[in-house]
Amino acid sequence: MRKLFIPLFSIAVLVSCGTAKNASGTGTSESSASAKGNKAFLSAYKEIRAEDLKKNLYVIASDEMEGRDTGSPGQKRAGEYMVNYYKSLGISYPKALGSYYQKVPADFMKKRGGGNLPDSENILAFIEGSERPEEIVVISGHYDHVGTRNGVVYNGADDDGSGTVAVMEIAKAFQAAKKAGNGPKRSILFLHVTGEEHGLFGSEYYTDHPVFPLANTVVDLNIDMIGRDDPENRGKQYVYVIGSDMLSSQLKVINEAANKMTNNLELNYKYDDPNDTERLYYRSDHYNFAKNNVPVAFFFDGIHEDYHKPTDDVEKIDYNLLAKRAQLVFATAWELANRPQRIMVDKK
Ligand SMILES: [Zn+2]
Questions:
Q1: Which residues surround ligand 1, an ion (CB under 5 A)?
Q2: Residue 59: phi, psi to the nearest 5?
Q3: From ligand 1's centre to the CA of 147, what distance in Å?
Q4: Over 80: is that where the pLDDT of 327 sits?
Q5: Which one-letter DSSP state was computed for residue 228?
Q6: What angle do CA 253, 322, 82 make, to 5 degrees?
Q7: How far is the CA of 242 from the centre of ligand 1 (A)?
Q8: Residues 226 and 162 sit within 8 Å (Cβ to Cβ)
Q9: How far apart are the CA of 73 and the centre of ligand 1, in A?
């Protein structure tokens, strides 16, 4: 999750978006709970396990990765671990890309205020859809963090180690379904972006240079911090969901149905308030999809006491809650990838 920065011009954008949102659209009557009782779904869903998330996070957020600053050797080591993980599962990359890596050039980031960051990479894993392979469901999370300062490693276990391992775990579940003959009908892109903390650079690069046309991109489910709780929700089984009714009247409905058939978490929409001063809709990678009219939902645990501190460590993660939130994203993605009609963009 990126630190808050408020340029004055965007206040006007925020207000106008809020007005538009209130002025248009209602819910949808189309059923979205088709996965309930679906054996294929239930067996894939069980592949998302707290202990596996923990195992991967203990690597991704270890001191060896040096806080995963954009373009750093530590970040590249984390990236290699992720690529090897996908290879071990038999999950490949998008053919058009030719590898798991999409280079995000230093120059691109410099022009956007990234200073002298070195070249970095987004990492893309891909499962092709069986019936509508040209339609893409994106599940994203940034794998960079803020690095090392004065010799202290900022491990970023929650931010966004938690999202990184959740994306990896969800990929494993979809791959298990595919191996059992129940692969997704639409394609799924597992998108690990870089440069988030410095300015959402990896997701901006991806949406400026999409591997698949954005017009065919159905949704971005973005996961940035889902392994902890915040002071307002201490001990609760909850997750903040942000932006899910901004562009499509169907996405929020689908996510709620997916939640009911999985862990029934408390879905907190506090940050959908256009007057909220944290402006979270604009502060993680989904925004680069939303600004291109791709519906998004952002899954988030809140701003807690270890946010952007060297104490954001693996010992403080609630792995059971992390698994439940990852299962929710998986269930939502399952429905979005398998329902007969792609969700509509019917709100502005
Ligand atoms: Zn952050």
A1: 1, 159, 197
A2: -90, -55
A3: 11
A4: yes
A5: S
A6: 105
A7: 16
A8: yes
A9: 19
Instruction: Compute, in angstroms, the gap from residue 313 CA to the centroid of ligand 1.
Output: 13
What are 275-321's pLDDT values in tens digits?
A: 999 999 999 999 999 999 999 999 999 999 999 999 999 999 999 99
Count the Cβ atoms, other than its own, within 10 Å of residue 54.
Answer: 17
Q: How far, in Å, from the CA of 306 to the mean position of ligand 1?
A: 11
Query: Is 255's pLDDT higher than 80?
Result: yes
pTM across the whole model: 0.91
Give the distance, in angstroms, between the CA of residue 127 and the centroid of all CA atoms in the same chain: 16
Q: What's the pLDDT score for residue 45?
A: 92
Residue 145 CA to ligand 1 centre (angstroms): 6
Residue 3 CA, ligand 1 centroid: distance in Å: 6
Over residues 67-115, the pLDDT tens digits come to 999 999 999 999 999 999 999 999 999 999 999 999 999 999 999 999 9
Residue 308 CA to ligand 1 centre (angstroms): 6
**Single-letter code of the amino acid located at 33:** A
Distance between CA 30 and CA 35 in Å, rounded?
14
Q: How far is the CA of 144 from the centre of ligand 1 (A)?
A: 9
- Distance (angstroms) between ligand 1 centre and the Cα of 302 equals 11
For residue 25, what pLDDT is reported?
32
The beta-strand segments (E) located in the chain are 101-104, 120-127, 132-142, 148-149, 152-153, 186-193, 217-223, 238-242, 266-268, 296-300
Rounded to the nearest 5 degrees, what angle is found at the Cα of 297, between the Cα atoms of 292 and 298? 105
User: Distance (Å, rounded) from C-alpha 145 to C-alpha 153?
Assistant: 10
